[in-house]
Write a structure and sequence with these properties.
Layout (H helix, E strand, L loop, with lengths): L22 E4 L1 E4 L9 E4 L3 E3 L16 E7 L9 H7 L2 H7 L1 H5 L1
Antiparallel strand pairs: 1-4, 1-5, 2-3
Protein name: Zinc-ribbon domain-containing protein
């Protein structure tokens, strides 16, 4: 099982309100054979968004036993990104624009 606690690394904070740090978390991992050894672990399958300290992904999946990829920030760019996590990571105003029924509520 891979630990989900953040590694002890000092991160500089800016004066502006920092955006929430979302990392990639996945149920499976494989070795990336695209480069030179040592081969690093990469997510295999759906890439979910996860906030450190949470027990669930942004889309509500429980993360017990999942692998956190600390070097990868969650992005909507890869085709393997979870659509529900992408929507949940959007600002509230953007989510309302995507769902006209929610906008009228």
């Amino acid at each position: 099982m891979t630990a989900t606690l953040a590694p002890n690394v000092a991160r500089p904070r800016t004066a502006a309100a920092p955006s929430p740090e979302l990392y990639v978390i996945a149920t499976h991992k494989v070795r990336d054979r695209g480069g030179k050894p040592p081969f690093r672990w990469v997510p295999y399958g759906v890439e979910h968004a996860w906030k450190p300290g949470e027990r669930q992904t942004l889309c509500g999946e429980w993360t017990s036993g999942w692998t956190v990829f600390w070097e990868r920030r969650f992005s909507a760019q890869p085709s393997t990104a979870c659509p529900a996590c992408i929507e949940a990571s959007l600002p509230a105003a953007s989510r309302r624009r995507l769902d006209p029924l929610r906008a009228s509520a």
